[in-house]
Design brief:
The chain is an alpha/beta fold. Helices cover 33% and strands 18% of the residues. It is built from 11 helices and 15 strands. The protein has helices at 21-32, 70-82, 106-117, 124-136, 140-143, 175-185, 188-197, 201-212, 234-250, 322-338, 353-356, and strands at 39-44, 47-49, 54-56, 59-63, 87-88, 92-94, 150-151, 155-157, 165-171, 219-220, 231-232, 282-289, 296-304, 310-318, 361-364. The strands form 4 sheets. The chain has a 6-stranded mixed beta sheet, covered by helices on one side. A 4-stranded mixed beta sheet has the order 2-3-5-7, with no helix packed on it. A hairpin with a 5-residue loop joins strand 13 and strand 14. Helix 2 (70-82) packs across helix 3 and helix 2 packs across helix 4. The longest helix is centred in the middle third of the chain and has 17 residues, at 234-250.
């Protein structure tokens, strides 16, 4: 418990690359909570003509959900149809900060939203995402209709008008599920968006320095995704990992609930520790930058060995061949496990990652009665 088994250059600063996402995840869990859901609001400033199904006014979309995707836009169309809305005479006004399909441009996201709402403009990709999601959730009723809302005006990026009424609130999956997808695939966009929800890079850095009680020089962040030149000592990285475990434990969760399990989960750790004995015995976040700092590779997480021990590991390499660094990291981890009786898999039941983002909910405003979609068990 806290005993250092092996250490080298623990107080030197390195570029952790994408392992920085663990710091972002920690800040998000502590600030928002594991069960936090991101809300997307759908509003209007016009009245509905029930006979024609037309709203005589604008439709507004607000929110900063990092996981908002085609299928969520189609659910908005479906909910609007259930309210009797089929057409909007005014504009589609999307508030700054809204993003869709991992596109950092609000303007492009707004255009994708516009097209996805309208069945005559919708891409096959959008239809595929929706059909997959609804099939997995066994939502036959939604599969039998073709949701569509045609917006006759322009696409505008602007805040929600002061007098607008809220029609629908769409809630994302829980933060912990979003983190699992983000960390398995090391999604830079989602990490940056999550950081924006927390006040940005500098605000997160200051909070972590204070929370971890570390010297500001030992944690310098240029981004919350790991792109660019970040600096952290292995010592501080271990503190981040420890705090992450503690924070998850408060919610009855462990690192495998948000981090990739080697040889099992898709993404960055899928092809590492794949040998029969090793599969599932390492839970870790990778970090890779091929050009920055002469080539950077990190491996941060925990390993389990046959003697029952769980060891936390931080390996950070820079200035060299990324593939060689990875080979050495894997070799070193296996060596540690072998010196303790060999590897032992963590108790872990994988859920397909696509399922992690299906646990969304929609509420129609003004009515407390709604059926949240069933979460995948």
């Amino acid at each position: 418990h806290g005993r250092v088994v092996s250490s080298q250059a623990a107080f030197d600063t390195f570029n952790p690359a994408s392992a920085v996402k663990l710091a972002t995840a920690l800040a998000a869990l502590e600030t928002l909570g594991a069960a936090h859901r991101f809300n997307t609001g759908v509003w209007t400033d016009g009245a509905l003509d029930r006979d024609s199904g037309t709203v005589n006014g604008n439709l507004y979309i607000s929110g900063m959900d990092p996981s908002f995707h085609y299928e969520h836009a189609m659910m908005v169309a479906r909910q609007l149809n259930l309210l009797g809305i089929r057409e909007v005479a005014g504009d589609l006004v999307v508030s700054p900060g809204f993003t869709m399909n991992f596109d950092s441009s609000t303007r492009r996201s707004a255009e994708q939203m516009y097209a996805t709402l309208d069945s005559t403009l919708r891409t096959t990709q959008a239809v595929r995402a929706w059909t997959y999601e609804r099939s997995v959730l066994k939502d036959q009723a939604s599969l039998q209709v073709n949701p569509s809302v045609a917006v006759l005006g322009e696409v505008v990026v602007a805040p929600v008008a002061p007098g607008a009424k809220l029609l629908i609130t769409q809630r994302s999956s829980k933060l912990v599920d979003i983190l699992k997808v983000l960390l398995c695939y090391s999604n830079n966009f989602m990490a940056q968006r999550l950081g924006d929800n927390l006040g940005g890079t500098e605000s997160v850095r200051q909070r972590l320095v204070k929370r971890l009680g570390v010297s500001p020089a030992d944690l310098r962040l240029a981004s919350l995704s790991g792109l660019g030149v970040n600096r952290v000592t292995p010592q501080v990285m271990i503190k981040i990992l420890r705090s992450l475990r503690t924070e998850l434990k408060k919610n009855g969760l462990s690192l495998s609930d948000i981090m990739p399990v080697a040889g099992i989960d898709p993404g960055t750790m899928e092809d590492r520790f794949t040998g029969l004995a090793w599969k599932g015995s390492v839970i870790a976040k990778t970090g890779t930058l091929v050009r920055t700092d002469g080539g950077v590779s990190s491996l941060v997480g925990e390993l389990r060995s046959a003697n029952g021990e769980v060891l936390l590991i931080v390996i950070m390499n820079q200035r060299g061949s990324v593939s060689r660094f990875r080979e050495n990291q894997d070799y070193f981890v296996m060596l540690i496990q072998n010196s303790r009786g060999g590897p032992k898999a963590f108790n872990y039941k994988p859920i397909p990652l696509a399922m992690q983002l299906l646990d969304t909910e929609s509420t129609v405003a003004g009515s407390e009665e709604y059926e949240p979609e069933k979460s995948p068990n």
